[in-house]
Amino acid sequence: MSDDKRWVRPFGTAASGEFEVSIDDALDDWTHTSLRVATLEPSGQVTVNTGDDEILVVPLRGGAEVTAVDHAGERHEVRLTGRESVFAGPTDVAYVPRGSHLTVRNTGADQVRIALCGAKATKRQVPPPFRHVAVTEVPVELRGAGTASREVRNFGVPQVLDADSIIACEVVTPAGNWSSYPPHKHDEERDGVETELEEIYYFEVRTEPGGSAPGADPVGYQRVYGTDARPIDVLAEVRSGDVVLVPHGWHGPAMAPPGYDLYYLNVMAGPGATRAWLICDDPAHGWVRESWAQQDVDPRLPIGGLR
Predict the structure, then answer these.
(1) I need a labelling partner for 191 at 20 to 30 A (CA). Which of 45, 104, 242, 292 fits?
(2) Dihedral angle, C-alpha 239, 243, 246, 249, nearest 10 °
(3) Given the DSSP bridges, would you call strands 167-173 and 150-156 parallel, antiparallel or unpaired?
(4) Which residue spans within 70-213 are E strands per DSSP?
(5) In Å, how far from its chain's centre is CA 186?
(6) CB count, 10 Å around CB of 214?
(7) Can you tell me the distance from the alpha carbon of 219 to that of 2, in angstroms, rounded to the nearest whole number?
(8) What would the pLDDT profile of 204-263 be if each residue is shown by its tens digit?
(9) pLDDT 10s digits, 120-154
C-alpha cells in the first residue's frame, strides 16, 4: 500500500474481530487516537478493557446500555437513548475513563450501531470521572455560510466534556456543500496558535430527503495535502463506513456532492500538554471565512433539528 493510500480505509478493510472498523496504534505512524465501530444484534454486546485509553461511546444508530467498572472498582451504568440515524440529530454519549472494563449491550429489538472513540490518556495522574452527556447538553453549532454551511455537534470538546486528551465531534454537511473548509491543519505545537492533533474521519452518506432513484450511490470526497517538508496527498471518494486518517497536513474540503448529505465523526488527540483544538488555515484559502459575513446560513440546517 502506498504511503498515501494507507491513510484511506474503505469499509471492510479495517475490520478486526467483532468490530467492522478498528483503527488504533497498531497502524504504522499512528499513535494517539482510536476508533472502533460495531453493529450489535438484539441481545448482542461488545466488551473492551480500555487500558491507557479513554473512550467515548457514541451511538450511530439506535441506543445501548453502557456498563463500566472503573480503575477504582466503581460500577457505572447508563442507558444511551441514541437516535434513529446520524442524520436524525445529535445523540447522548458516555465518557469512560482509562483503566475501565467496558461493556456495551443492545437491549432492544432492532440492530444498533455504536462507535467507540478513543485516545491515549496518560497526561493526568487521576483520570476524569465516568460521565453521561445528555443530548440536551450537546451544543449544536451552525458553522460557515452559503455553500460552506455545516452543522457541528460538539459533544466531546473541552468546553463540554472533561477528559484527558480526546476531542470529538460530528459534522453534517448538506448535499452540495463543503465543510472542513477553508483547509486547515493542527500538526504543530505553537503556544496559543496551534495544537498538534492527529485526526480520524469516519463517514456516513445518504441520499438527501426527497431525492432518490433506483441504484443511487451516496458518495462524498475528502482532501488531505501536506507541505514539501511533510508531504501527504489524499483525495478520497468516501461512502458509509469509510475512514480517512489525518496524521498531519492541511485537510479539507470534505465535499457533499449534489443529491447526497455527508456525515463524519471526528476523533482527535495529540502529545501536547494542552487539550485544545487550535487550527491554522491554509493562507491561500483562509480569506474565504471573510466572505461568510455577506451570506446566509444554509436554511436546510440544522438537519434533524436543534436539541
Answers:
(1) 292
(2) -20
(3) antiparallel
(4) 75-83, 93-96, 101-105, 112-120, 131-133, 140-143, 150-156, 167-173, 178-179, 184-185, 198-207
(5) 16
(6) 4
(7) 23
(8) 999 998 877 778 999 999 999 998 899 999 999 999 999 999 999 999 999 999 999 999
(9) 999 999 999 999 999 999 999 999 999 999 999 99
Q: Which amino acid is at 236?
A: A
d(CA 148, CA 114): 28
Identity (one letter) of the amino acid at 270?
Answer: G
Q: What φ, ψ does residue 70 adopt, rounded to 5°? A: -85, -175
CB atoms within 10 A of CB 251: 26
**In 3-state terms, what secondary structure has residue 258?**
coil
- The angle formed by the CA atoms of residues 91, 305 and 133, to the nearest 5 degrees, is 25
- Reference 201, options 3, 9, 1; nearest CA is 9
Q: Which three cell numbers stand for residue 84?
A: 434513529
Q: List CB contacts of 125: < 8 A, sequence separation 6 or more.
A: none
